[in-house]
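Journal club prep — side note

Before the paper discussion, L.F. wants everyone to see what a predicted structure for a comparable chain looks like in token form. Sequence:
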Amino acid sequence: MAEKRKKVILSGMRPTGRMHIGHLAGVLTNWVKLQDEYECYYEIADWHALTDDPTKAREVNSNVLGMVRDWLAVGIDPEKATVFRQSYVPEHTELHLAFSMLVSVPRLLRNPTFKEKLAELRKRKGYTKMQLKVEELEVEKELPQILKFVREEDEEKAERMLSSVINRTKEEVLEKITGEVSLDEAAIPSEVSYGLLGYPVLQAADILLYKGEVVPIGADQLPHLELTREIARDFNRTYAPIFPIPEPLLTETPKILGTDGRKMSKSYNNAIFLSDPPEVIEKKVKSSITDPMKVRRNDPGRPEVCPIFHMHRVFNREEVGEIERACRAGELGCVACKRRLTEVLIERLTPIREKAQSYSDEDVLQVIVEGSKRAKEVAERTMEEVREAIFRP
């Protein structure tokens, strides 16, 4: 009996820096599972890495090696999955050009990712005139407690709580601006390039070049996939039925908060990296904020606002129920809770860090070059079909 054909998956990451535990929980652990069930193409999306800031091109090479080294260390197997670099396969840009003829500018302007990026740029450049009242933010209820600490001249507690409030307020303000600013309220900043606007078209080319049938995404990313599906339908209808209409593979994406309570990101300097040694992990966890209302050990805590608990929930599932109960009951102090998380993270990350160190730059580069050759063979066949469909007599 012939072996059943595996469906094709393409997924990728931009080489913008080191991998942290948010990547491990949100993407890489899932990739390791998928490579046994699907024909997987894992893309080093280096062209995509330039869409936000093209001046970072010189950082890409070193970031590529470090990123793929971490991929291999967590269990991505080049014998099971094709690991390749986007710029080593020029057919990506050729298909991107062909697809760009099928997409209108208004459609790209409605893309959720572009609108989020635009809102961030406008916020930084002062384009928005939106005013937020304190009572609209969740942090309002914590302000009386800060004032109480100030009146009691407990500066350390007041400063600690205020720092947490400020960080979370920044996130809430950005979320409100992102959700409420429309494209018609102000001019588009000059920093917006076609590359940023056309990002999802290149993304569609990435997926369809390998005739991707399944795309692993979170539920919040479904609108992003829809443009790829529209492009596939438009091409098939306009020229020839070449491309499958990719379906979403909904995957759980655990929320990992950084050490300051915001989303974990290297740009926020709040990440715990896969390459961090034990002493660095301990230092980062120890300095992490917790629930600002839990000042003393026996104060009842609120795990839902604590970054430490969020990490326990993902990396320490066996104990998370008891940790939540003890925290809410005031039986578990933050120092002990952090100490336990440190132990769990060191145990989880040490084998990954040690395995990553065993790969030389030459080892990693060989994986990328060989994977890119395999990817290019598939891409060339697809582009032959595309050119024939478009330019046939």
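L.F.'s comment for the group: Residues 128-139, 176-186 have pLDDT under 50 and may be disordered. Keep this in mind when we get to the figures.
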